[in-house]
Amino acid sequence: MDFAAMMEHAEEYHFLLQLAILLIAAATGGWLASKISMPPVLGQILVGIIIGPTVFNLVDGDNHLIHQISQIGVVFLMFLAGLETDLKELKASGKGASMIAFGGVTLPLALGTIIPLLFFKNYLPDGDSHHQLMFALYIGTILTATSVSISVSVLRDLKQMGSRQGISILGGAIIDDVLGIILLAVVSGMVNPGANTSVSQLLINIVSFFVLAIVAGIIISKGITKFAQGSVWRDRIITFAIILCFIFAYVAEMFSVAAITGAYFAGVAFATTPYRHRIVNKVQSFAYALFTPIFFVSIGLSAVITSDIINYIGYSLVIVFLAVFGKIVGCGLGARLSGFSPKHSLQVGIGMIARAEVALIVANQGLKSGIIKDETFTSVVLLVIISTIVTPPLLKLLFKGEKPVEVCGGE
Question: String of b and e for 240-273 (b: at least 16 CB within 10 Å)?
Answer without folding.
Answer: bbbebbbebbebbeebbbbbbbbbbbbbbbbbbb
